[in-house]
Specification:
This protein is an alpha+beta fold. It contains eleven helices and 38 strands. Among the domains are: 333 residues, 3-Layer(aba) Sandwich (Rossmann fold), CATH 3.40.50.1820; 153 residues, 7 Propeller (Methylamine Dehydrogenase, Chain H), CATH 2.130.10.120.
């Protein structure tokens, strides 16, 4: 038998990586003899007791795991250097995309010394900056953050969401902008999502999720008791449905969307001026309909009879059938990712080879022209007042930390408004787009990013990040961790797996429900391609992913662990037979299916990571990361999987759990905490792939 050279090297590097850790055995975990009987099959669940997050035994176990994890990772020689460099990337001024209302600009700004971004406003582009709300003093540990949820039409009242840690729940406060005073009303902490203020700022519509019950839309009149808020819509929908609303800028039209998964939704409308009730606009069709309101005109981005999407204008009075709607922007070769209406223009974002292209149109669909992008990257949709003349959007790429640009509808031009300056030398790096071939012959695009002139010798530490689900497109974005990685001579690869939205709804559907295995096959093809092309080898290869991407990492661990040496699995879904029982799990059933259904059970059981770890094999090093504040994907997935893998007799590589109470799905993490957490993650990846941190002197960004 001939042993491949890379396999022999893997054996040596494993020994080196293990030796680099100074640690004992992981904490012991109690096993229970719990067996479910599902559809004629016995399903063991020995760590179900870890589902109880508040039990004293679980809390003690979490503490022991975090102590063990830090004892392994904190002493690594790379960690302190990585923390210092990460701090340099993050401790720079960052300004959010401004929102224009009534001649006022509203935006967030985080100075280098701030742990959380502060909300400000000013009159026009050059007015004096004024404080709206500073969340930094709201908690001693600086884990409380604030986000603008809506501003009324004349910019006099702002609705601000105040969030603890990374949880999805917010408390909504209402602020009189000019004085900065609270109006006395607060919507109590809850899973409040869309917030829509009426033009006079006296009334607000909002949607709220009650976990495992469903979303409802309420009407709150400022100065009234929120406990008496009027229930407007949603009682007939369950936890699997997503319900939200938007209000036209003039306050006349209330638009309600009801999504069943990510492939179908209905629209409802209410004319608040006439006093008529809520009426269905489109219902029951197997397609998505995203509303875009421009004054008294409603545009709809849809994949109805157009898998790469088109834009139609719907009639609001009278309401007519979809077949009678007017096509404004037809389907083309490139997928329409999104659309917005601002500054008297209709903006359309398309994906061309997995990068954003923006185009401005008149409301009648006449093309005004493309908005020039600095390079291949990601742009947000321009936003601003419909009746105004300016709209703002951001741009970033794998090597561009971030630009904010201002579009002027009077000239049709866009100009730089703000730029993040990190000292990163963008011009020293190159982004290439390559194509792997999956098992069924489908071409899978992947971005590969590295230093210019870097010789590909089959030995480059390579980090692969992927997602593959819910129609989410992974377009180029700037990540300080990736920047450090490529500065130190590593390679970053980001594939566009099926299940995403990079090539329209057909690409999404090819990786959901009974086609989910396709996503894992695409990732395997990507890893094999990187090895075959002489970029890297398995002992230099790491995979990372979060949320649905965490499921992807878990499946890769079970199906092709021989192709990589390390995995970072963050806020993941891993027990696919029980995920739908917790938090927001029910709304993901249209994407994954449910084990309650016999046909779905067979598919889920075949790839569910928690049920496919084998006792007779060893696995790569794994770092799981989650926290109590994840109120979207239950942290129990990472807890149970950690216990399961640590209990494997043949496992020699570390299985770690980094668990912080304030970490969740929705950001809001203080800079100091993020530096500590991400430096541990990076130190783990550097150690497992052999990458070394280079202490770089501060530099000026190349221009």
């Amino acid at each position: 038998m001939i042993i491949p050279v890379w396999l022999a090297v893997v054996s040596l590097s494993v020994a080196v990586a293990v030796a680099a850790y100074a640690h004992g055995r992981p904490p012991s975990t109690r096993r229970d003899d719990i067996v479910d009987h599902l559809h004629g099959i016995d399903i063991a669940d020995p760590y179900r007791w870890l589902e109880d997050q508040e039990s004293p035994e679980t809390r003690a176990w979490i503490g022991a795991q975090m102590e063990y994890c830090c004892s392994v990772l904190s002493p690594l020689p790379e960690r302190v250097r990585l923390a210092d460099r990460m701090e340099r990337f993050l401790r720079v001024e960052r300004i959010g995309v401004p929102v224009s209302r009534g001649g006022r600009l509203f935006y967030s700004r985080r100075r280098p010394e701030d742990e959380q971004a502060v909300l400000y406003w000013r009159v026009g582009r050059r007015g004096r900056e004024r404080l709206l709300l500073d969340p930094n003093p709201l908690s001693d540990d600086r884990t409380t953050s604030a986000v603008l949820m809506d501003i009324n039409a004349d910019g006099s009242v702002a609705a601000i969401g105040v969030r603890r840690g990374g949880e999805d729940e917010v408390e909504v406060r209402f602020v009189e902008v000019k004085s900065g005073d609270e109006l006395g009303d607060r919507l109590a902490r809850g899973h409040i999502e869309s917030v829509s203020l009426t033009p006079d700022g006296r009334t607000v519509y909002y949607s709220k999720l009650e976990p495992l019950i469903g979303r409802r839309i309420y009407l709150h009149r400022l100065s009234d008791d929120p406990a008496a808020d009027e229930l407007v819509f949603g009682t007939e929908y369950g936890p699997e449905d997503m319900v939200g609303q938007a209000l036209s800028e003039n306050g006349r039209w209330l638009i309600i969307a009801v999504y069943r998964g990510w492939t179908q939704n209905d629209l409802f409308v209410q004319d608040l001026q006439s006093g008529d009730g809520i009426r269905p606009l489109v219902a029951g069709l197997p397609a998505t309909f995203t509303p875009i309101v421009a004054g008294d005109r409603l545009y709809v981005l849809t994949d109805f009879q157009a898998p790469r999407r088109r834009i139609l204008e719907a009639s609001l009075a009278p309401i007519n059938a979809v077949d009678d709607w007017t096509e404004v922007v037809p389907e083309g070769e490139d997928t329409i990712e999104g659309a917005s209406a601002a500054a008297g223009r209709l903006f359309v974002a398309r994906l061309h080879n997995v990068a954003t292209e923006l185009t401005a149109y008149t409301l009648e669909g006449a093309c005004i022209g493309p908005i020039e992008m600095p390079e291949q990257g990601t742009a947000t949709l321009p936003s601003g007042a419909w009746a105004g003349s300016e709209a703002y959007f951001s741009f970033s790429s794998f090597t561009e930390p971030g630009l904010i640009l201002r579009y002027d509808s009077r000239t049709g031009g866009s100009h730089l408004w703000n730029q993040i300056r990190t000292g990163f030398r963008s011009r020293a790096f190159v982004t290439r787009q390559l194509w792997a071939t999956s098992q069924d012959g489908t071409a899978i695009p992947l971005f590969v990013v590295h230093r210019k002139g870097l010789r590909m010798n089959g030995d480059r530490p390579t980090r692969v990040t992927a997602y593959g689900g819910f129609g989410v497109s992974l377009t180029p974005w700037f990540d300080p961790e990736m920047a450090l990685w490529i500065e130190d001579g590593g390679v970053v690869a980001v594939p566009a797996l099926r299940g995403g939205g990079e090539f329209g709804e057909a690409w999404h559907r090819a990786g959901m429900l009974d086609q989910k295995q396709t996503v894992f096959d695409d990732l395997q093809a990507t890893l094999r391609y990187l090895i075959a092309e002489g970029i890297t080898r398995p002992d230099r290869l790491a995979i990372t992913g979060g949320s649905n991407g965490g499921l992807l990492v878990g499946a890769a661990l079970c199906q092709f662990p021989e192709l990589f040496s390390a995995a970072v699995c963050e806020v993941p879904l891993l027990d696919m037979l029980r995920y739908h029982r917790f938090l927001q799990g029910p709304q993901w059933v249209p994407e994954y299916g449910s084990a309650e259904d016999p046909a779905n059970f067979e598919i889920l059981h075949a790839y569910s990571p928690y049920h496919n770890i084998r006792a007779d094999r060893a696995y790569p090093a794994v770092l799981f990361a989650t926290g109590d504040a994840d109120t979207r994907v239950a942290p129990l997935h990472a807890r149970k999987m950690t216990a399961l893998m640590q209990g494997l007799e043949r496992q020699r590589r570390p299985i770690l759990l980094y668990y912080e109470t304030s970490v969740g799905h929705s950001g809001g993490e203080p800079v100091a905490s993020r530096v500590q957490r991400r430096s541990h993650v990076l130190a783990f990846l550097y150690n497992e792939t052999g990458l070394r941190s280079v202490a770089l002197a501060p530099t000026t960004r190349d221009l």
